[in-house]
Amino acid sequence: MAEQGVPRRGSRTARAIAHVDMDAFYASIEQRDRPELRGKPVIVGADPTGRGVVSAASYEAREYGVRSAMPIGRAARLCPHAAFLPVDMAKYRQVSLQIMAILADFSPLVEPVSVDEAFVDLTGTERLLGSPLEAVRQIKARIRCETGLTASAGLAPNKFLAKVASDLEKPDGLVVVPPGGESTFLAPLPVERIWGVGRVTAKALRELGIATVGQLQGVPRAVLVRRFGKHGEDLHDLAFGRDDRAVEPFGVPKSVGAEETFEADLRDPEGLKTTLRAHAERVAAELREGGFAAARVTLKLRLAPFETHTRSVTGEPTQDGLELYQRAVLLLDRERVTRPVRLIGLSASRLGPAGVGQLDLLDPAALRRERLARVVDRLTERFGEGTVVPAALLTRRSSRRGAGSV
Amino acid sequence: MEVVLDRDAFLKGLQMVQNIVEPRQTLPILANVLLEADAETVRLTATDLEVGARVSVPAKVASKGAITVSARKLAEIVKELPAAAVAVKVGDNASVSLRCGGVIYKLLGLPPDDFPPVVPAAPESWVTLEAKTLREMLSQTGFAISHDETRYALNGVLLVLQGKEVLMVATDGHRLALAKRSLGRGVGGATGIVPRKAVLEIMRVLGVGEDVQIAITQNQFVLQMPNFVMTARLIEGQFPNYEAVIPKGHPRKMVIARGAVTAALRRVSVMAEERNKPVRFTLNPASLRLSASSQELGEAEEVLDVDYAGEELVIGFNSRYVLDAIAAIETEQVVFELKDPQSAGVIKSIEDEGYCCVIMPMRI
């Protein structure tokens, strides 16, 4: 390659990184379990007469223009004859664990990105498994054989390229980017394929006459840095397919969240707060399960008809449901919501390890709540979600499925 | 308006108010300083709507009037001027000319009418303090003010005027610092949370010699000195019950030399994890072992002679908190009062009763 930078971590020997991405994961699981749905459009998400969003759409439904994260009502108009199914997160998690276990047989370095995708570092596994390409073929075959589902995979010298590659020939695809072929592979692709190039950056690039990665490769680094600052450096590196991030098996998730679209717009502030409390408890439980504490709390509000606001606040790292709730309420109160609310969500980010650290001086109940949470978590594990809830949530319907990790 | 000021006095005046101006404002005029000329002074006023300050600078006033100009630019200009007379004259359309020696500036101002008024409350009574005392109390508490925006009631110093006492408390939820002084006479009763910005500004402008007067009204803190007044809107919200947090009668008392423990903590904490700088305190009769370790880097420990006669106790603290607490003490010997690894420790001077800092331990 013409461009030669400073030696980078991990660049001495070519790495072999696979990105494994399940095809229409939720919808495929439902089709697998209900043979009558095979070959038909399936949309997993909120109630189609209600106002939630699409969580996943089968390939048959995608032909009608249905996409995930689209309002469910729109999906129902685009594809009225589809089978609409609720999200069964517990089932999908089960399958996810099965898949991650398969991946773990191929490398100790497996980094789950979400329930349905993961990176696998296959560098140096040749003597055990044969060539990395052979290993990826085996991974796909075992997933199909053991779960009845198909996965698409990308195999490349780094995470960025592997991820781009896995997406190119979905479903059931396998795309390989050989070492040295990075620039050629990327050149014909649109710039939107590059990580961090969203609508805004893509528009700015278009104004410079750049639509493909190949055109971006022709722009000197200094020009990109002048125009985009630090982000310009990343653009330049990624355009040539350079990415030296390691596959991190115990990767800390970026955020944990819960949200709910209401069946009818909610105006009552108490109702909003009760929902937030439920979200906070759920998020806190998930943080505790992972052993994390979160410093940042984000409140998400969707006002009728479809206007989304997010507000965040940063404080001491916590994994305490009440504390998360109080921070979210602070944000909610500041918003002075006067319009009906369609969706409310809470997410916790800036995660770090919990358990070590500073004890609280002003909240003598904090230690007690911590001990209580541990007991509640154990009961939940044994008897299921909703076994023990804060009294404030007793009047609420038993917690809905449909909220989950975001 | 047409006035002549002495450059040094002008600069000093500007420097007393210019920090009030925030780098980014909600209203353009808040970037400006208000200049008002009457009889023999020019009054300079700055505000961010929460905190306001006004200073009077002696001047030869040819014609009275008022104008507002960019506080940052004006201070920048006056700082560069030679020590000579500065002539300021307001022209048409809120333009301002400023001459000193051979240099002429033309500044584009904004009319004074839009400048938000800074109105110091007229309290029923003032409390008079030596500037030195006020500074001491603020520096004994200011470090513990919280930066956590989710706990805004903690983003300032609680000021309590009660009986014959002035009391200040600040806490960030991990530690609490309290300073208390008694006055010769009764001061009535008033309480308010003074925002951090006002606290920092007071410490910046406070001289050493003079007396200052302070007061708390319904929603305002006011401080006045000769030719200077500062107002601050009190933080609304409930300050925690500080008395409940301060432990009383902890059984384990350790007395140690301030300089020795400070130096040792600084040395040992080099090896502590960066975010919380945790250091383990292991107390045994007559000895204190400080130790810190980091998984990636290694470890450090140091043993000190102390005056302690109780059983062994191992407790972790954020060493920055301990250093802050000790730095506010002036006597040679400091006292640590401790109970167990989960209970807050108290650090104070061996003699002076006017200060204590309560620190919650860390799990390490």
Commentary on this structure:
- The complex is a heterodimer of chains A (406) and B (364).
- Chain A has 406 residues and is of the alpha+beta class.
- Chain A has three domains: 1-177, Reverse transcriptase/Diguanylate cyclase domain (Alpha-Beta Plaits, 2-Layer Sandwich), CATH 3.30.70; 184-239, DNA polymerase, domain 1 (Orthogonal Bundle), CATH 1.10.150.20; 255-401, Dna Ligase, domain 1.
- In chain A, 39% of the residues lie in helices and 21% in strands.
- Chain A contains 15 helices and 13 strands.
- Chain A has helices spanning 25-33, 59-62, 72-78, 89-104, 126-129, 132-147, 159-166, 182-186, 199-207, 213-217, 221-228, 230-239, 269-290, 321-335, 365-383; strands at 17-22, 42-45, 54-57, 83-85, 110-114, 117-121, 151-156, 174-176, 255-266, 292-303, 307-318, 341-353, 357-358.
- In chain A, strands 5-6-1-7-8 form a five-stranded mixed sheet.
- In chain A, 40% of the residues are buried.
- The termini of chain B are far apart.
- Chain B is built from seven helices and 25 strands.
- In chain B, helix 1 (7-17) runs antiparallel to helix 2 (71-80).
- In chain B, strands 1, 2, 3, 4, 5, 6, 7, 8, 9, 14, 15 and 16 form a twelve-stranded antiparallel sheet that branches. Chain B has an eight-stranded antiparallel sheet with strand order 13-10-11-12-24-23-22-17. Chain B has a four-stranded antiparallel sheet with strand order 20-19-18-21.
- Chain B folds into three domains: 2-114, DNA Polymerase III, subunit A, domain 2 (DNA Polymerase III, Chain A, domain 2, Roll), CATH 3.10.150; 127-245, DNA Polymerase III, Chain A, domain 2 (Roll); 252-359, DNA Polymerase III, Chain A, domain 2 (Roll), CATH 3.10.150.10.
- The model of chain B has no long low-confidence stretch (mean pLDDT 93).
- At the A-B interface, strand 11, helix 14 and strand 13 of A face strand 25 of B.
- Strand 13 (357-358) of chain A pairs antiparallel with strand 25 of chain B.
